[in-house]
Design a protein that fits this description.
The chain has 13 helices and ten strands. By secondary structure, it is of the alpha+beta class. The mean pLDDT is about 95.
């Protein structure tokens, strides 16, 4: 189906912006573990990172579908969208659950690029994706909450002004449902660091700017609470479907990047007096990957359209993320195989993207947990864990 002229214009504009930051830019950042400040600032000034913020607060007021187009194009260009993608979906916690005072205070500044809200503080070293068992606590003390605990794999915190943090305000053994008693807080990172918050970077496989966080009697004002005390699990959950859809779109972008690279190289590389793409052993895997990535995009589109229509889309968002991440990984493997030894040379840029796209079979949720969700909640089979 042909895309609308509005979508085509978005694609063209994002493509032109990304072209100013070529693959050598991203290669150097990967080598130095640097942050793409210039790229993120320009993406924000152009309005692409704030499309989900309503016009009343200075954003474009567009949907997750349009946001998916943007993220897909960013990744197809060879960029690493993980450096900034959370700016799109984390703000939804403020939009849907913040007070009007909080919305007026933060959303226009986020839209204008004056503030960055790029971090979700949820995952912990001892609980992982068992979110309801997290150990970080927030205890009410007068006009403040006092926070203690630890988080891990919290990305972009060193490049974010604000963070949404999930902590337990009522012990798990004192609530009727294990999802009760969790509360979400909007934390000013700069104010908190050194006053009860310690940030330690994690050296990892890719340049994802992830850190460990340690909270030691961090005091935050009571108006940091997002939504209602004890109902923080819903605050976080509401953002997860958008996160999965957008990351699925990024994986489609990665997949298309790999297919573009592989098909071009297969046409240009001559071995035994013929282009290697003439050989079915080279051509067919690329063609199959193309079909898989395009099929995954259809699920991304479906999930995004459902999200924007306000329809329940947990299954579709999860399936989109799973299918797209697997298709992009296979496309990356095909691209590596097509290039042979040259794929390992950093100047070809493939090995960086190969590492980056691998992450999304693990994060933000693993494939096995998606399968268990489908098995239990879609197919009605017994809970598997």
């Amino acid at each position: 189906m042909r895309e609308s002229s509005d979508i085509s214009e978005i694609r063209t504009a994002v493509r032109q912006l990304c072209a100013q930051y070529g693959e050598d830019y991203w290669l150097e950042l990967d080598r130095t573990r640097g942050y793409p400040t210039e790229f993120v600032d320009e993406l924000t000034r152009s309005g692409f990172l704030t499309v989900l913020i309503p016009e009343a607060y200075g954003g474009a007021g567009l949907g997750v579908y349009e946001a998916s187009i943007i993220m897909e194009e960013v990744c197809r260009s060879g960029a690493h969208a993980g450096a900034c993608h959370a700016q799109m979906y984390v703000m939804g916690s403020v939009l849907r659950h913040g007070s009007e005072v909080q919305k007026q205070q933060y959303l226009p500044k986020i839209a204008a690029g004056e503030l960055r809200l790029q971090s979700f503080g949820v995952t912990e070293p001892t609980t992982g994706t068992d979110t309801t068992s997290l150990k970080t606590t927030a205890r009410r003390d007068g006009d403040d909450y006092v926070i203690n605990g630890q988080k891990v794999w919290i990305s972009r915190i060193q490049h974010s002004d604000l963070m949404v943090l999930l902590a337990r305000t009522t012990p798990k053994d004192q609530v009727k449902k294990k999802t009760d008693g969790l509360s979400a807080f909007l934390i000013h990172v700069g104010e908190a660091e050194g006053r009860g918050l310690e940030i330690r970077p994690i050296e990892s496989m890719i340049n994802h700017h992830s850190c460990e966080l340690f909270f030691d009697d961090l005091r935050v004002p009571k108006d940091s609470l997002l939504g209602t005390e004890g109902a923080g699990f819903k605050v976080i959950l509401d953002g997860m479907n958008a996160e999965r859809i957008l990351i699925a779109a990024e994986c489609v972008g990665d997949g298309r990047y790999f297919i573009d690279k592989a098909s071009h190289y297969a046409k240009e590389r001559i071995v035994f007096d013929r282009p290697i793409g003439q050989n079915q052993g080279v051509q067919f895997p690329i063609a199959r990957s193309y079909a898989e990535v395009e099929a995954a995009w259809l699920m991304v589109e479906k999930a995004a359209r459902m999200f924007d229509a306000g329809e329940p889309c947990g299954a579709e968002a999860n399936m989109a993320k799973m299918l797209a991440s697997e298709a992009s990984w296979r496309a990356g493997d095909v691209c590596m195989q097509t290039h042979g030894g040259f794929a390992f040379a950093k100047e070809y840029h493939i090995e960086r993207k190969f590492r980056e796209t691998r992450l999304y079979q693990i994060a933000p949720i693993s494939t096995n947990l998606i399968l268990s969700f489908i098995g239990e909640h879609v197919l009605g089979m017994p809970r598997s864990f």
